[in-house]
Design goal:
Radius of gyration: 23 Å
Shape: globular
Distance between the termini: 60 Å
Largest sheet: none
Structural class: mainly alpha
Helix content: 55-70%
């Protein structure tokens, strides 16, 4: 699959070099396998942030595995949450981010905005609603109403305008 066969070495490897290669493989394999597995989980939920943070299965060798320094940095600095997790955190009621992700996945192909922008639209719409006395909404309900209001098909819709219209309608009641 796009990889060139590696030519055989001119001299046979010494026993010490074979052991060193074996140890290198043992060290590199678990993070690589974990990255592939988490990449598969990320692909199942279409979470682009997870897919971007995990190494691809086609990479091999030392370049595909992070150095010890990078591993320590990753362990002490968790990655920033994706759009669905940000909305779940905003609501703070324990609803899983996967529920937000499902609605975002249904809505995003219909909108001109990307997922991070949709998250910002939902957040600002919710803030506007609360500022104007509409207290029976949370981020998930705003996201659901937006998804229900945007028609499927082409062309894509400016979802910020739809959210503004929804907020105006709710504030008028």
């Amino acid at each position: 699959m796009g990889q060139q066969p590696v030519p055989a070495p001119k001299k046979p490897l010494s026993r010490g070099k074979k052991i060193a290669i074996g140890i290198g493989v043992l060290i590199a394999a678990p993070p690589l396998v974990a990255g592939v597995i988490s990449g598969v989980k990320g692909a199942a939920t279409h979470d682009t942030s997870a897919a971007a943070a995990t190494p691809g299965a086609s990479h091999s060798g030392p370049a595909a595995t992070p150095s010890a320094k990078k591993k320590r940095a990753l362990a002490t600095h968790p990655s920033t949450p994706g759009p669905a997790q940000k909305l779940a955190d905003l609501d703070g009621i324990g609803r899983p981010a996967s529920m937000y992700q499902q609605v975002l996945d249904a809505l995003a192909p219909r909108c001109t905005e990307n997922r991070p922008r949709l998250t910002a639209i939902v957040t600002s719409t919710l803030e506007d609603l609360k500022k104007n006395g509409v207290n029976d909404e949370d981020g998930f309900s705003v996201l659901q109403h937006l998804e229900q209001s945007v028609p499927a098909g082409n062309p894509r819709v400016n979802c910020a305008s739809v959210a503004t219209a929804y907020a105006t309608l709710r504030e008028g009641n």
